[in-house]
Amino acid sequence: MKLYEAYAEELAESIRQGVLKPGDRLPSVRHASASRGVSPSTVFEAYYLLEARGIIRARERSGYFVLASASKRLPEPGIQADASNESLPVDVSALVFDILESAKERDVVPFGSAFPSPLLFPLPRLARSMASTVVAMDPWSSVDDITPGNANLRRQIALRYLADGMHVHTDDIVIVNGALEGLNLSLHVLTKPGDAVIIESPAFYGALQALESHGLRGIEVPVHAREGIDMAALQSAIERHRPKACWLMTNFQNPVGSVMPDSKKQAIVELLAAHDIPLIEDDVYGELYFGTRRPLPAKAFDKTGIVLHSSSFSKCLSPGYRVGWTVGGRYTQALARLKTTRSLSTSAPAQAALADYLSKGGYDKHLRQLRHALAAQQAAMLDAVSRHFPKGTRASRPDGGYFLWVELAGGVDALELHRRALSLGISVAPGPMFSAQRTFRHFIRLNYGHPWTERSEAAVATLGRLIESLRSESSEPGKK
Ligand SMILES: Cc1ncc(COP(=O)(O)O)c(C=O)c1O
Asked: What is the pLDDT of residue 156?
């Protein structure tokens, strides 16, 4: 952790605990630098970081002040209690395809999108890595780099885990076509049609589609906005259904944004190990944290090899390169064999380009910039939502990633809001996309992964007006 990050975190904690209150002035840069024995630029960096996170703001010639919105927050959505804890067939794909297709147009405001803006990625720099590696490519690499994948890339990935305090063996890593392939392969290795699998409620719709296409039954277990899956419900689902696998997002859960504390990750791994149930861990957002360190994956607590951990470069660097990986634990060989029969290998030039990019340095600097941009965009979106959406709205405030999970006030129907917003050129991701039972009818997921502009502000205002009008329509006599 850098010095300025540690100082920023300390100040953020003082604000969270109410030691520093909204409107309070922060120590002057000169004073803070003298009293802490750090350089003025360290203090400036810390203040810039907190400003980007929407916690403090500079006032001309007066210094930095704690913002009112830092404590006057929208309440967070509560847990959705109607996850039935039954094992049910999954039928969501048609709805998901319809919604994703409708939001593809470039001129639509992409609040419903699953990706951050490509403008936030160092694509020209990657293209240079691609060009130079392809020109210099050993003709045998297309053979060498077939599954489990490019040895240098797997080493670079293992090194990144090592830097975060997690030991991953290079031989345990299988390169795949994006995390989605790794997750699907994991499901295939572990289950057969008709089996039951524990999933989150709400869940990433890709997980629901995977279950649906493999003919599996989903047991939905509720997720809390801050700390992830409900432990008591998880335990009871395991005992009742004897599932063949459990598919979870431990960090910056999509769509809710929760991060499980380390103690919970450890408890889940131990619970599953005791029942011999493998964990399919989706950790594609782990690098997009706004705090001072990467939250550990559940894989870090895996002593028996039951965690199949997947991630990728899609959310941080290059969605189009389609390069991800799975750390397969005891299932690594089965996974690599299945990958070989399905698609033989991930593109050798794409693997080599990413290996080159990672080994030349610069990725961490890019990630720092990306995290700062996302944190600032989250603050702008939350601020706009709190001003334009009706009273009673609830919104998550995740410590990373690029989604807000919003509970609409007044029982407004999210699918109807999606239809009307789209006709005005704004996409949102309606809650029923994230549930096997198509619940979450009063929720939407909003993407803040795009630079904040006047158009974004106007789109939030339009959504606010649409919600108001849907609310008054549904409260008219004769309508429900
Ligand atoms: C939660 C989650 N998991 C996995 C994926 C797929 O990632 P990739 O592009 O690496 O296949 C996505 C992409 O939208 C996602 O949101």
From this structure: 97
Whether 398 contacts 463, CB under 8 Å: no
From 204, 311, 343, mutation site for ligand 1 pocket: most ligand atoms within 8 A of C-beta: 204
Q: According to DSSP H, which parts of 344-435 are helical?
A: 348-359, 363-388, 414-423
Q: Which whole-number Å values give the CA distances from 48 to 53, 68, 109, in the listed order?
A: 9, 17, 28
Task: Answer whether 179 contacts ligand 1 (Cβ < 6 A).
Answer: yes
Model confidence at 480: pLDDT above 70: no
User: Measured at the alpha carbon of residue 354, what is the angle toward residues 121 and 125, in degrees to the nearest 5?
Assistant: 45
79: confidence class by pLDDT, cuts 50, 70, 90: confident
Cβ distance 148 to 336 under 8 Å? Answer: yes
In the reported structure, the alpha carbon of residue 284 is separated from the centroid of ligand 1 by a whole-number distance in angstroms of 6
Mean pLDDT for 197-211 is 96
Rounded distance between C-alpha atoms, residue 151 and residue 53, angstroms: 38
Per-residue exposure over 221-247, b if at least 16 CB sit within 10 Å of its own CB, e if not: bbbbbbebbbbebbeebbeebebbbbb
Distance 407 CA to ligand 1 centre (A): 23
Gyration radius of the chain over CA positions: 23
Pairing of strands 245-248, 307-312: unpaired
Number of the ligand 1 atom closest to the C-alpha atom of 115: 14
| β-pair partners for 445 | 405, 429
- Beta pairing partners, 444: 406, 430
Which element (helix H / strand E) includes 312? Answer: strand 307-312
Q: How far apart are CA 393 and CA 44, in angstroms?
A: 35
The answer to whether 332 and 171 have CB atoms below 8 angstroms apart is: yes
Q: Rounded to an integer, what distance in angstroms lies between the CA atom of residue 374 and that of residue 372?
A: 6
> Which amino acid is residue 29, in one-letter code?
V
Q: How far is CA 258 from the centre of its chain?
A: 9
**CA of 287 relative to ligand 1 center, distance in Å:** 13
Distance 382 CA to ligand 1 centre (A): 24
Nearest by Cα to 246 from 443, 87, 431:
87
- Rounded to the nearest angstrom, the gap between the alpha carbon of residue 457 and the centroid of all alpha carbons in its chain is 23
3-state secondary structure (DSSP) of residue 176: strand
365-395 residue pLDDT tens: 999 999 989 988 998 899 899 999 999 999 9
The confidence score (pLDDT) of residue 72 equals: 55
Question: Residue 394: which of 78, 41, 52 has the closest Cα?
Answer: 78
Most distant CA pair in the chain, distance: 73
